[in-house]
Amino acid sequence: MRFVPITLKHSAAKVDRRSAVRSMLLIFAAVVIAVTGMVFTALDRVGHYANQLDEERSRESVSGALLTFQRQLAATLHDYAAWDDAADNVYRLSGLGWARRNFGAMTEKNELFDVAIIVDHAGRVVFGYAEGQPVTERFEDYITPDVRSLLEQTRAAGEGLLPEATSFTRTARGTAAFGVGLIRMKSGARVAPPDEGRYVIFMRHLTGPTIERLASAYVLPGLRIEEPQEHRSHRVDILSPSGRAIGALSWEPRSPGNVSLAQVRPLVWCAVAMVAIYFVLLFVSGSQALARLAADEEAAIKLSLTDRLSGLPNRTGLFSDLSELVADAQKSRRDVALLYLDLDGFKEVNDAYGHATGDELIRAVSAGLSALVGEKAVLARLGGDEFAIGFLSRTAEADAAQLAERVMEFLGAPLSMGDRIAVVGCSIGIACSPLGTVPGEEVLRRADMAMYRAKEEGRGRWSAYSPAMDAEREERNRLEVDLRQAIERQEISVAFQPVVEAQHMRLSGVEALARWTRPGHGPVRPDVFIPIAESTGLIDQLGLCVLRTACEALRDWPELTLAVNISPGQFRDPAFAERVAEVFEQTEMDPARVTLEMTETYFIQNPARARDTLGRLKKTGVNIALDDFGAGFSSVGYLRQFGFDRMKIDRSLVAAADLGGRAVDMLQATVALARSLDIPVTAEGVETDAQAVALRIAGCDQLQGFLFGKPVPIAEIARLRGLEEPLFRLSGSA
Q: Does 231 share its domain with 325?
């Protein structure tokens, strides 16, 4: 809009007065500029000092992380080197098999060490394992000069000195902490002359997952390992025994001073602007009416493109902004990047605290995202709990991935909403328009599809669009149609996995598991079609179909119990208990023989509804078991609050029992907890004799796993039922 100046009659006095006012404004402006400069200089110094303090803290944290990493390996080395069983077997040729099982096999998926090598006094290799497999490459790739120097140091340790040492070295697989220790009795007594000693060498490499755990534990964003030749200011060198730098850990500085300055600067500028505007208004008061009209017009246009709750652009506004971004990308030869966000826990907040709190959460998220993405990016709320962020970049894919990580970090932290705190998290889809060649609407569709992929893969992550997603979406739709038809045609079969009573290892029951053979494609894995059933609402029909089939198969075998898994999707059905009772009535199955197994997911999200549904289910006479105990957030509170009839220990606790020590203690404590509440315990995932013995000793009354049998057709269960001998006989049992 063009402003037309108002013509006034000027006199010499008025001209002088205006000149004086202009001079005063100029002087005032100069003073304001000078004061503003001093304030910002002081703020910059404070920010720089805050950055230095954070840099020192991060450097200390990284150094501490490295030291802890080395000390953990040293503790593990001591446990294995000073071990009576190891001293009895390693020095004997007949005991090498034991050594391979207890040293070599433990390198597989072990967070304590991933390489184990036994050498003799002269440094010759007896055997070596890496990642659970015998070392086939050259042993020089692991036994580096650094390792040999510590081996010499350990051999030289006299009586009364600890024959162990740890440090860092660089192998063919990267940088690793390593330790060398003489294999001896736990008391410290040596079992061989000095020139016949044998030594164990453990290594633990600084892999990607290990770095991520260190970054999470020590709050070090962007922690990564660098090559020795890289030179970054934010790094701590990793030194070999000789003091040579063999690598470094670097991190991304958080620069809290810069963040604080970014928050303070707008306030200072606002104060300066307010003072300046006051004096300017005295000089240009005649233009206020026109400015107000222009502002009203702009506000009306903005209101039609703005979401009223968050103050961000709405879907219409996003389409307009995306069109501008695409046009700018075509002119500047840059790419458009779009992030599509969906809050993972918004519905739970709404259900638990009400819509008013949900609105507060939306406003808090909007404010946080606005501060995070800055003014150069487009931020919009698309409705509900969905947001979009668009921007231009010459490296759109990399920048979008980096921004997605920052957004997930922000939304993964607790958000304050008045007196309430909530953690929501988010799933993010990323799509790009290279050089503006993809229209804005299509970019939004692709980002939306990628976001749903992130949700399907477990939420709390981001996923980038690929053309294969369209094909996969079509295949998923076809799979959904075929699954619906399979349920309607009763083509879903049921396999039964044996459950044995722990005392005598005899068949006491079975667990029913859904199986589907898709016509023209073959068997479909349960972890493929069950999530589809849950997301499309077919899980209600599928679950009842499995329950009905299983009840009909076991109806005439009163000595066997039946366990059936229940999905949280079924649990949300208000008429679920009535449908279960109807199945029992139709199949003439005794409900007391049936146990419905369910995980804690639904109990955490909707405890009140879960308690009500459990009460109605128990009135039918069916038993309720808490499945996968120990895999998530299971607590004593759930066991007491919901009154479960049985507890199933997750296979992760069972597998950990092979490690001995604290893992066995945790297993025994878990079973003791259930027994103290008069809750019988079933252990699933049993695969070895040792696990079965440990679980029976711990007090489990039922065992289930591949050790006793895989899921089989009902005919095989009939055969096992007719056996007079125990289904399985433990080694050494009568």
A: no
Q: Are residues 91 and 224 in the same domain?
A: yes
Beta-strand relationship, 623-629 and 594-598: parallel
DSSP assignment of 466-494: -THHHHHHHHHHHHHHHHHHHHHTT--EE
CATH number of the domain residue 580 falls in: 3.20.20.450
Q: Which range has the worst mean pLDDT, 223-237, 283-297, 544-558, 691-705?
A: 283-297
The answer to whether residues 179 and 151 touch, using CB atoms and an 8 Å cutoff, is no
If asked whether residues 233 and 176 sit together in one domain, one would say yes
CATH number at residue 363: 3.30.70.270
Position 18 in a domain = no
In a domain, 53, yes or no: no
> Is 501 found in the same domain as 452?
no
Cβ-proximal residues to 459 (8 Å cutoff; 6+ apart), any chain: 344, 425, 427
The candidate with the shortest Cα–Cα distance to 248, out of 179, 311, 175, is: 175
Contact of 341 with 452, CB cutoff 8 Å: no
For 371-421, what is each residue's pLDDT tens digit?
Answer: 998 888 999 998 888 999 999 999 999 999 999 999 999 988 888 777 778
Q: Write the pLDDT tens digit of every residue in 22-81.
A: 677 678 667 768 877 787 788 788 878 887 888 888 888 888 888 998 899 999 999 998
DSSP 3-state of 600: coil
* Same structural domain, 362 and 511: no
Range of the domain at 217: 65-250
The whole-angstrom separation of Cα 127 and Cα 324 is: 65
Does residue 146 have a pLDDT over 80?
yes
Torsion of CA 303, 306, 309, 311, to 10 degrees: -100
* Domain-embedded: residue 420: yes
Sign of CA dihedral 724, 727, 730, 731: positive
377 and 518 share one domain: no
Given pLDDT bands bounded at 50, 70 and 90, which one contains residue 427? very high
The CB-side HSE value for 211 (13 A sphere, CA atoms) comes to 17
Q: Which range (617-626, 642-651, 678-687) has the least confidence?
A: 642-651
Both tokens of 389, joined, read: 């962020």
Helix axes 208-217, 12-81, angle to 10 degrees: 120
* End-of-domain residue from the set 466, 495, 524: 466
* Residues in CB range of 329: below 8 A, 6 or more apart: 335, 336, 392, 433, 435, 436
| 566 and 641 part of one domain | yes
Q: Are both 494 and 458 inside the same structural domain?
A: no
Is 265 a domain residue? no
CATH number for the domain including 130?
3.30.450.20
Domain final residue pick, 401, 431, 466? 466
- Give a three-class secondary structure readout of 616-637: HHHCCCCEEEEEEECCCCCCHH
What gap in Å lies between CA 540 and CA 574, rounded to an integer?
Answer: 11
Q: What's at 521, amino acid-wise?
A: H
**CA of 490: how far to CAs of 514, 541, 545, 556, in Å?**
12, 10, 8, 22
Q: How far is CA 614 from the centre of its chain?
A: 30
**Both tokens assigned to 316:** 């219409």
How many domains does one find in the chain?
3
User: Residue 572 forms beta bridges with which residues?
Assistant: none
Contact between 543 and 573 under an 8 Å Cβ cutoff? The reply is no
Residue 72 DSSP symbol: H
Give the pTM.
Answer: 0.49
Instruction: Pick the closest to residue 466 from 427, 428, 426, 431 (CA basis).
Output: 431
pLDDT at residue 627, rounded to an integer: 85
Torsion of CA 464, 470, 474, 479, to 10 degrees: -20
In the beta sheet, which residues pair with residue 358? none
Secondary structure percentages of the chain, helix, strand, coil, to 5: 50, 20, 30
